[in-house]
Amino acid sequence: MKKSAAMTQKRVVIIGGGFAGLNAAKSLASLPIEITLIDRNNYHLFQPLLYQVATAGLSSVDIARPIRHILKKHRNIEVLMADVERIDPAGKKIHMKEDDLDFDYLILAPGSHYNYFKHPEWAKDAPSLKTIPDALKIRRKVLTAFERAEMEENPDLRQACLNFVVVGGGPTGVELAGSIAELAHHTLSEDFRRINPASARILLVEAGPRILGPFDEFLADKARVRLQSMGVEVLEKKMVEDVSSRGVRIDGEFIPSDTVLWCAGVLASPLLTSLGVELDRGGRVPVNPDLSVKDHRDIFVLGDAAQFLQDGQALPGLAPVAIQQGRHLGKIIASRLKGEAEAPPFRYFDKGSMATVGKGFAVAKVRKWETAGFRGWLLWVFVHIMYLVGFQNRAMVLFQWAWQYFSFDRGARVITQDLPPDS
Amino acid sequence: MKKSAAMTQKRVVIIGGGFAGLNAAKSLASLPIEITLIDRNNYHLFQPLLYQVATAGLSSVDIARPIRHILKKHRNIEVLMADVERIDPAGKKIHMKEDDLDFDYLILAPGSHYNYFKHPEWAKDAPSLKTIPDALKIRRKVLTAFERAEMEENPDLRQACLNFVVVGGGPTGVELAGSIAELAHHTLSEDFRRINPASARILLVEAGPRILGPFDEFLADKARVRLQSMGVEVLEKKMVEDVSSRGVRIDGEFIPSDTVLWCAGVLASPLLTSLGVELDRGGRVPVNPDLSVKDHRDIFVLGDAAQFLQDGQALPGLAPVAIQQGRHLGKIIASRLKGEAEAPPFRYFDKGSMATVGKGFAVAKVRKWETAGFRGWLLWVFVHIMYLVGFQNRAMVLFQWAWQYFSFDRGARVITQDLPPDS
Predict the structure, then answer these.
(1) What architecture (CATH level 2) is domain B120-264?
(2) What pLDDT digit, counting tens, does each position of A334-369 carry?
(3) Which fold has domain B9-40+82-113+266-337?
């Protein structure tokens, strides 16, 4: 592999092809530098729609695009599919499994995963939703639960198959619970002979004072009422105390359930520990106003992996934050390369936030304007289609949404078996 | 689970939700009987397009539909997702893992899998293409080979990553080899920086005298010329003598390759051995003209699992044979239930056969009319869309084909990681 000794141009290494890394790569592409983007997957994933893959509304490839395909026009960007194991900030080098790579600038955007609050053993029974394999696993778990219920003669065990517990009342938890409720009450309603899928119980459990914590109370109230009307039981201020293969214990009460899904708490990538700087409680790297790491002017951290303080508050782990940071970093590095005055510090511009609650209903806040209902949902559809990468993906997703809107049918209701471990 | 003691109506059990089983279920649905269809998957798979899933042209769910959804209007059909372990023909009972089920009529349509000619150990290094997990495994293998080549510095090892060997020159092997050639020469052409994907070698190996054995020589010649013009090396009368993780030995010559794909030889489901009748070399059950099994008038075998002799020749394992057998069986069972004169014996009506060789080119024979080229391909597209189940799937597949036709882009180029074995 090329070493920097042979380089005539500065080399920028980007770790992670999510919203932050991909936008950083694009914003740097016009500069006279060599860029290497490394991701452990060959695709960029549109995470905001991952819950629809998990609930059989979309196919996994609808929300994924090969990174090297997105960047193919930029001849100065190479894309490697590899695992980065360690960073050597002093030696300006990163170590992959098979090779290592020198850098002049390093951009870290490795993302985050869910955090089981000191109970990593819960992960086995309560999968979380961050990757495509996660989504396919949850889809299989949810659909198989109905199949098993159909085969089960013992009424208690049958109900356990039909109890779905979603832990975490943030946007992902709300969207997932709403989508499972639709599946049970509409999509599957005629498919079974022995069970009534509508007898499914869907619980959404939030430890905080209310669901959709970062949203205004008005919108959270609207979402709660909507969820309840769809058949979701919303439990707030309730702690999950135990998770096992048989169910969950919530505030002392055991709820038998074959399907516990985890959407609570986030921890940044463990790769960041090799930077040797102090991390915050979420494993994130505190960054300077120019997104660089303390004492490492040429190393930047973006997206979910960064703790960026704005007006005294850490920015949330949202796609728009990652996108804006990636884009802005291009300006900062360009000004340094050209020897011009440093670009202004990063500042997040909050365009708004939104969450869907089943089809045809979303809560949204745009600046000071708040809406809950069909209008919010149209806005949500528009924004998500706009940000989805690739014309083909947009057309496919729009078609499937239109189809589902009128038919309640979901095409991706296919239970894929595990691949054998040696595959 | 219901036992036949409680039944007032005859119970028909169908094993397998492929073309044969699904069409049998539909053709029986209007009779006053109880029907149970059992499949180990929850979906019906449109196998003729599986090679496009393997080569990233289609998404797996585009060619799969939940069986219970297809049959939901027929209230006398129940669908179980279960593994049948054994048949008890004398006791008229089938045994599943968790339960067993009595039957009055049994319809066996469990399909087939590929056969490694007494070398089951080759399966690990040369996956075959029968199921969705197979297709996803092949997709991952093919796409990862290019990614590894991009990372590899040793030129010999790099070429091994770029050597693709398809064993078996039947329609599936031809379609797969053509599709990989297009991937290398067109779809991926701009995506890499260190390798040229067009330096891939694609070998199609056939042990028989020529590829497309069941087709006329004229069409096989046309297909061979087309494959060669696409960059596929067609090796005929060549035996594969060994397969390992490093490559294949063909007629004494070792060809290093990371990607060996197996499309040769077929063996019927091992479930059939529990019938206690003599099977043919392909593990198939010889059936009577009414599709029933010798000495078991109420047990029928259809599709790939049956050896049906017509004019002295066994019918091939093709979708149209399975579909026609499934449909015809409905008539036979109806005549018996009504006590009418037995329906005529089954006779296969051969409408023709076809195989694509890359996009825009297919060889086809319809009655006495033969064609090779774009016209054949249009016919191929029409027939495959027509037989695909479900409007949504049809629209999605058509859209993707149109997209690929004009852009060479394939949307499903996403390498999904293995799921952990405990998932």
Answers:
(1) 3-Layer(bba) Sandwich (3.50)
(2) 999 988 888 999 999 998 889 999 889 999 999 889
(3) FAD/NAD(P)-binding domain (3.50.50)
Residues of chain A in contact with residue B412, where contact means CB-CB under 8 angstroms, are: 61
Q: Which are the contacts of B88, defined by CB distance < 8 A and separation ≥ 6? A: B94, B95, B274
Per-residue model confidence as pLDDT tens digits over A247-260: 999 999 999 999 99
Where does A4-40+82-114+266-337 sit in CATH, by number?
Answer: 3.50.50.60
The residue extents of the domains of chain B are 9-40+82-113+266-337, 120-264
Is B413 within 8 Å of A42 when comparing Cβ atoms? yes
For chain A, give the longest Cα–Cα distance.
Answer: 74
Query: How deeply is A93 buried, as exposed, middle or buried, from its count of CB atoms within 10 A (0-12, 13-18, 19+)?
Result: middle
Distance from CA of B397 to the nearest CA of A (A): 10
**Structural contact between residues B370 and B219, judged by C-beta atoms closer than 8 angstroms:** yes
B266 neighbors B317 (Cβ within 8 angstroms) = yes
The most distant pair of C-alpha atoms in chain B lies apart, rounded to whole Å, by 74
Chain B within 8 Å of A38 (Cβ-Cβ)? no
pLDDT digits (tens, 9 = 90+) for A387-421: 887 777 888 888 888 888 877 777 778 787 644 33
Q: Output the DSSP codes for B308-334.
A: -EETTEEPPS-HHHHHHHHHHHHHHHH
Task: Please give the ipTM for the structure prediction.
Answer: 0.82
Q: Which two tokens stand for residue B258?
A: 């990371």
H/E element, A36: strand A34-39
- The pTM assigned to this predicted structure is 0.88
Give A373→chain B minimum CA distance, Å. 27
Kindly state the tokens that stand for A39: 């991701």
pLDDT of residue B1 exceeding 50, the answer is: no
Give the nearest chain A residue to B398 (CA atoms).
Answer: A396
Contacts with B, A 219-248, CB within 8 Å: none
d(CA B215, CA A168): 59
Of the candidates A205, A164, A168, the one whose C-alpha atom is nearest the C-alpha of residue A188 is A164
- Does residue A406 sit in helix, strand or coil? helix
Q: What is the dihedral of CA A244, A250, A251, A254, to 10 degrees?
A: -70
Are A81 and B411 in contact (CB < 8 Å)? no
Question: Chain A within 8 Å of B150 (Cβ-Cβ)?
Answer: yes
* Interface contact flag, A61 B399, Cβ < 8 Å: no
What's the start-to-end Cα distance of chain A, in Å? 28
Active-site position among B121, B150, B175, B340 = B175
Q: What is the DSSP secondary structure assignment for residue A287, as one 8-state letter? A: B
Q: Cβ B78–A193 below 8 Å, yes or no? A: yes
Q: How many CB atoms lie within 10 A of CB B387?
A: 15
Which stretch of DSSP H or E encloses residue B96? Answer: strand B93-96
